[in-house]
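Hey,
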Amino acid sequence: MSAEPDGPEGRLRRLTTIWSRALFPVTSTSLTRTEFEEQLLPLARRLSELLRARSFDADAAKAVGAALVGAHCTDPEALARTLDCVDAYLVLYCGEDGPQDELRIRSSRLQHAMAAGYAQALRERTLAEQEAIAQAALRAQGVVAQALHASEARFRAVFEGAAIGIGIADLDGNVLQVNKALLRMFGLSEQTLRGRRVQDWVHPEDAPQTWRLYDELVHGDREHYHVEKAFNRPDGTVLWTNLTVSLLRDADGDPQYQLALMEDTTERRLLNLRLRYEATHDALTGLPNRSLFFERLEKALGAGEGQRFGLCYLDLDGFKTVNDSLGHAAGDRLLVEVADRLQSCATAPGEMVARLGGDEFVALTTGPGTERKVDELAERIMNALVTPISIDGRDLMVRGSLGIVEGPAGERTAAEVLRSADITMYRAKSAGGNRSELADPEADARAITRHGLTTALPTALERGEFFIEYQPLVHLGDGSVRGAEALVRWLHPQHGVLGPDRFIPLAEHTGLIVPLGRWVLEESIRQARAWRELHGGQKAAGPLRINVNLSPCQLSHPGLVQDTVDILERTGVTPDALCLEVTESALIGADDDLLKPLRRLAEMGVDIALDDFGTGYSNLANLRRLPVSILKLDRSFTQGMQQFPADPVDLKIVEGIVSLAHSLDLAVTVEGVETGAQAEQLRILGCDTAQGWYYARPGPPERLHDLALVDATG
């Protein structure tokens, strides 16, 4: 239980509290004041006991003073505050029952003894600390001496045993010390190397900043630098190194020595050069490859004002035939021989030949006068291919198509120049090959546009960018609308509306013509059904029919018949509402396998029209075996009829074709009717139907409905 506030223990607690408050501010301790007070309580209790003891115990009082030192109360103020507190409060709180004068005398003696014990303990502690410091200093001195010795030994071991070269020189460049690795790298003796000066090691391959960095270091303006540097060996070879030079300062921070660390990179450099060569040269021919050629071309295009360039892009004609017939080994030998011949054509300064891959080569010439030089280079290249090349006992005639690009530097990128050369080369190849062509910006633009359209075709169909316009087919006898030809258009996001002549050849080339043609067929047949439903109550001359063009690719596609049947059944349209137009050129020399799908469609009731009749030079007798029911006469035969009187020769030709067609039970449709005189003359000649701008331009399906409605209602 806790003591009463006014009892002996309570008074002792108040004494301790007063003492702790006086002493805590000048005590170096991690305790809180409350914890510190608890630490003083036993000492206060001991003083209270000594105050009331029968005999005076000086040693016990000294022990209390020494305990204060043990509690880290070592500040000069600590003893004074303790004595003041004991003098003022010890008798007051701990000696109420005794004679006051004797107790005060006893308190004074206790204070003297406490002070003596405090001083003695403080002195012993100070001596102990001084001794500990002295011992620590001696130990540290020994450790430093040992460390210095070990450090010097380690430095010597590192210096002598290092795999990299190490050299020390003064700030004047005099070599003072070198290790064995450096001696081996240079192939010199230590006496010879130590007699050299750093400035003697200038090499032609030094980077421009090498000696500027050296001067900055020896003048104290930089602490170190790192460069790749070459040195001449006594045997005439070159030593390549990674060189790091550092500045060594004295204790005052003043520059004193320079330390060089050298790593021998000669073999690595030779390997890198070899790898660089292999990475930039063609493994088969040894010519620069595409990568190196692009570097040289970009450098030429980045030349200053007034500089020009000329480029020849060569592709061998018929090289695939050599590979296919004689094998790839023979093809490789042919390429090597061609490369040697081309290399001999480009020997002037600023000229180079490279192999881009396969059988494609390029030759580059640079300088101010490339307008003339590139033509001469192209002529040398073409002449170099004239002589046959002997492969496995066979003399092979080698021909090539050459595209030439010439112009000022700085106007185009390397990719643009090479693309222009590539396009020009293919233009030469398309013209028959074994020739050269000069780049034409307009032809390049057309080719680039064609390429862009080709790549955009697949997604255009998915995005619904195609639509169909319809041009009426008019009966020449009574002027009634009998149907329409479906003409597909492309609403291109950048180029606007494109006619079929712009994209149908591209679709045929890529094979997209099959899904595109299927889409056109289905959309057109759906429109035919819509027209028939609209005209169901009208007195038209007959049901409107839709004409859809078939490309040669569609004609040979195995799914043509089934696709057509499926679409007709799905839309609920009878076969007689459909006419498929096939160009005459697609059927010239057609065998029975090619004609079989058309015969099956004709047997179903689908009309087959022979489009552009008269342009394919077909044998008229072949008309008997073709499953066609309509001849579409090409507009070239009727252009002479646009004015009155008509060209008599054209009249005779058309009259003969119409007579022949009717004798074979074929109807005749004429394209490109543009004047009334032309239409009247064709009616007189017996043509059945016609289409052209005279009647209507191609347009939306609503326009055809309106024309047919007007015709049906009079």
